[in-house]
Fold this protein.
Amino acid sequence: MKFFGGCDVGSTYTKAVILDETGKIVASTTIRSKIRSQESAQTAMQTVLAEAGLKDSGELTYLIGTGYGRNKVPFADENISEISCHAMGVHVTDPSVKAIIDIGGQDVKGIAIDTDGTVKNFAMNDKCAAGTGRFYEAMARSFEMELPEFSKFSLKAKNVIPITAQCTVFAESEVISLVGEGKPMEEIAAGIHMAVAKRCFVMAKKAGAVDSIALTGGCAKNDGLKAAIEKVLKIKVIDLKTDPQLMGALGAAEFARQKGLK
């Protein structure tokens, strides 16, 4: 049996996936990224290799690195952009999905997927951290909550308190002021999700989303954000069967499988 690997070194989290010849996931992991991308890649790969019963990366037929630190995966046979890998990861998970929004630690991308899993078109907002994973970490800190709790908090809101600041730093200050004024915290949280959803609107349109879209990245697990996107975009957010945070690593592993079986 041959095995194939994908390692997605993100700015916030590093993910790794190992597939067998049939494309089945035999091992996967998500770890907090370390200061050095190379160390993040090594730690993540050691975890999945052990889970797959392999001694080292040399036992993999092919390995592809992707993500923010893709050039720092020393044992990779090659690297491919995270845009292509997210598209392929979603395609093998659910071929019916034709448009995705990837909300990473530092940027937001809208990606249109072709029938073979390749990228038709994409748009990226990488000039501001607003609406990214880092933004949500800052917001959760303002609420003195962990991210999982914060992601569901807005679902209890009866109204939405708009967040007007476009910058992460200023938005955090605005949120702290609103909390200090005694405004309903769940309604502030709803305003945060609505602000991010509006930022995703342009990305979704450029990705060609018509009636449905899938989310990838860690923020795809945010129930409040999913609800806000459905409301703003007026389209259905598709729940992926595989962990949406693994899509980049899964796509990289699938590309490795395709190349390794030739």
The mean pLDDT is 91. Strands lie at 3-9, 13-20, 25-32, 62-66, 78-79, 99-103, 108-113, 119-125, 212-216, 236-238.
